[in-house]
Each structure stands twice: as structure tokens, then as C-alpha cells.
Amino acid sequence: LAVSHMENKEYKEAVRLFSELGEYKDSPVLLDKSQTIINEGIYKRGIIALENNRFADALDLFNSIKEFQNSQTHINVCVSYFTGHYEAGLEYERNQNYAEAIKEFMLIPEYKDSAVRQGVCEKLKEEVRIEQLYQFSIFEGNKLAIASDDELRQAVKDLESIGDYKKAQKYIKQYKKIL
């Protein structure tokens, strides 16, 4: 029965049955042959995943056959990919370059806390954007003596876009009185 599964290319079932047969006749040899065929298929799928930059898939596949051929080398390549992007993301985040950090973490959402780090960086990036817009709008509006109506309208519009941030409402009222 195990041999017929092997002949029908039902290698998983053949492996299961040959395993149950233990040392009976040539069961160990056929078990090894069936398992090798399975491992070769997994290995080929892992290589294809690597070639298509699907590192998470490749890592899962090679981890399932760690001892087969040079799977460990491919595991190391995948881990290096994840580690490199993760460390780069952390470095960008430390340097407050949130846009680049987000790009790095987006490449490896399933690695460690990358998805969380990405969310944190997106929030921080938005906070920085709002603060810069706020500061710019105040600066533009405070040039009242030389500001044109268009500049003041733009400052009001920018401040309105950030709502209740800091003293935005105060400046909106102040600038609208001038207009």
C-alpha cells in the first residue's frame, strides 16, 4: 500500500505508511526516498519564494527542512533581510526620519514588532507634519504688517486643517479679524 502511494506521487501518505512499517524489508530506504522527494519540492518552492522576494514564505519553507541541502544558508539570507530592514527602520526612527522608517517596516510587517513600529512612525510623522504646519502658519500670520490677504487666508486655511491643535483656534480668530 505504501509503495502504491509512492508510485502515485502521494509522498506524504507514503512517508506516513513507511514510518509505520519501521524496519520491514526496504521500508527505511523507501521512506527516505519519499521524504527526500517531499523535501526537494519544499526546497524548490523556497528558492522560487526567494527569487520573488517573498522572504517570509521562503523562511517558513526552509525552516521546515532545516537539515536538507543548504537550507540553513537560505534561512540565514532571509533572517539577514528581515534584520537589516528592521535595524534600518529603527535607525531612521531614532533620527526622526519617519517616512523612511515606515518604508523599512512596511517591507517586513510580520517581523518582530515591525507593524507596531510602522504605526508609531506614521503617528509621529503626522504629529511632526501638524507641528510644522502650525509653526509655519503662525509665522506667516505673525508677519501681519507685511502679510497679504492671500497669505493670511492660507494661514487660516492651514490652521483650520489642524483643528484644535495647540492654539490654532486663537490664531484663526486673530487672523480672521484682520481679514
Task: List the main descriptive attributes of the protein structure presented here.
179 residues; mainly alpha; 9 helices
What does this structure look like?
With 179 residues, the chain is mainly alpha-helical. The chain has nine helices and no strands. The model has no long low-confidence stretch (mean pLDDT 91).
Share of residues in helices: over 70%
In whole angstroms, the N-to-C terminal distance is 91 Å
Number of helices: 9
What is the H-and-E element order? HHHHHHHHH
Major sheet description: none
The low-pLDDT segments are: none
Task: Sum up the overall morphology in one term.
Answer: rod-shaped
Oligomer: single chain
Strand runs, count: 0
Strand residue content: under 5%
Structural class: mainly alpha
Mean pLDDT: 91
Q: What is the gyration radius calculated from CA atoms?
A: 30 Å
Give the SSE layout.
Elements: H1 2-7, H2 11-21, H3 27-51, H4 55-63, H5 71-94, H6 98-107, H7 114-142, H8 149-161, H9 168-178
Helix pairs in contact: 2-3, 3-4, 4-5, 5-6, 6-7, 7-8, 8-9
Outline of the structure:
The protein is mainly alpha-helical. The chain contains nine helices and no strands.
